[in-house]
């Protein structure tokens, strides 16, 4: 079996924020390979560098040292090639724009022709099961639907890589379960590569092919777990011994990272 292409490759990646008089080591010596079609979750307590890592991939922050490539390019080149879609923690939809106009905004900025925009919006809404809600305003949608709309906005460029920063963190568990299932289906259907930040152990284990356990002060990777779970995952897979075993390993990794501080 040939190995899938490298999508994100980090070697001894470090990022130190020079804030005030105390520099913050947000990422220290991160080594990670994300390959095409992977679903990679980043889990760890606040301040361990999860958002920073996504921001480096997206060229919103610059590394201090080490190497990082995105689709074999520098993050800057990847950004210019529109290599990824970014989903933020809050839906960040403009309340005065309808759902379709929200999804259109980045396409307008990038200068897509109007017919192309329409097709991309329709396809993206279909992927997140929001067809029929084009003309609604964000406030007319539930929290889960708003978050799906913001995923549709990230999907509209049809980039192969999706960066998702705690997209379901603010939602209740039932809605989150449903969106987890939907996201897995979307991932299986589109063969996209997903980098997903979460605080939730079950969410990380349920979704991922690879789980990156991180820890703060300094921000670093403490464990990388390749999941043996099959790609087809009904929700009740969460009660199987295999699932619980991975969850246990994640929990141990988080605990080990924590004791480091004391
Ligand atoms: P996480 O997403 O895991 O909660 P972040 O990547 O947001 O962590 O932050 C990692 C560390 O870097 C934290 O200590 C945070 O306070 C610090 N940090 C994040 N952004 C900045 C910034 N722009 N300037 C200074 N420090 C920052
Ligand atoms: Mg964060």
Polypeptide structure, described:
With 262 residues, the protein is α/β, with parallel strands linked by helices. The chain has two domains: 1-83 and 161-262, P-loop containing nucleotide triphosphate hydrolases (Rossmann fold); 89-158, no CATH class. 37% of the residues lie in helices and 24% in strands. The protein is built from eight helices and nine strands. The protein has helices at 50-57, 75-80, 99-110, 114-127, 143-155, 173-190, 201-207, 241-259; strands at residues 6-17, 24-35, 39-43, 65-70, 84-87, 161-165, 193-198, 210-215, 220-226. Strands 5-6-7-3-8-9 form a six-stranded mixed beta sheet, sandwiched between helices. α3 crosses α4 (114-127), α3 packs parallel to α5 and α7 (201-207) crosses α8 (241-259). The longest helix has 19 residues, at 241-259. The chain is globular and about 50 Å long. The model has no long low-confidence stretch (mean pLDDT 92). The structure holds adenosine-5'-diphosphate (ADP) and magnesium ion. Magnesium ion is lined by residues 50-51. Pfam families: ABC_tran. It comes from Rhizobium mesoamericanum STM3625. Residues 8-237 form the ABC transporter domain. Keywords: ATP-binding, Nucleotide-binding, Transport. Belongs to the ABC transporter superfamily.
Key attributes of the depicted protein:
24% strand; 37% helix; binds magnesium ion; single chain; Rossmann fold; 9 strands; ATP-binding; ATP hydrolysis activity; binds adenosine-5'-diphosphate; 3-stranded antiparallel sheet; alpha/beta; 6-stranded mixed sheet; globular; 2 domains; 262 residues; ABC_transporter_ATP-bind; ABC transporter domain-containing protein
């Amino acid at each position: 079996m040939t190995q899938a292409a490298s999508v994100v490759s980090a070697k001894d990646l470090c990022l130190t924020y020079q804030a005030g008089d105390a520099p913050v080591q947000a990422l220290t010596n991160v080594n990670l390979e994300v390959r095409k079609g992977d679903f990679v979750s980043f889990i760890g307590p606040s301040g361990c560098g999860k958002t920073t890592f996504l921001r480096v991939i997206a060229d919103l922050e610059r590394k201090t040292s080490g190497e990082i490539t995105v689709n074999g390019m520098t993050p800057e080149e990847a950004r210019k090639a529109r290599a990824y879609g970014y989903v933020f923690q809050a839906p960040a939809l403009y309340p005065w724009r309808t759902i379709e106009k929200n999804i259109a905004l980045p396409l307008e900025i990038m200068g897509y022709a109007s017919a192309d925009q329409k097709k991309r919006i329709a396809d993206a809404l279909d992927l997140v099961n929001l067809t029929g809600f084009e003309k609604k305003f964000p406030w007319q949608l539930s929290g889960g639907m708003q978050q799906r709309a913001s995923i549709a906005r990230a999907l509209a460029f049809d980039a192969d890589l999706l960066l998702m920063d705690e997209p379901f963190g603010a939602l209740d568990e039932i809605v989150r379960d449903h969106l987890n299932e939907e996201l897995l289906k979307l991932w299986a259907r589109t063969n996209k590569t997903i980098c997903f930040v979460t605080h939730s152990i079950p969410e990380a284990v349920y979704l991922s092919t690879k789980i990156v356990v991180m820890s703060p002060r300094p921000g670093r990777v403490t464990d990388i777990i390749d999941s043996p779970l099959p790609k087809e995952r009904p929700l009740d897979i969460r009660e199987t011994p295999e699932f619980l075993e991975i969850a246990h390993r994640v929990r141990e990794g988080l605990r080990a990272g924590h004791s480091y501080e004391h």
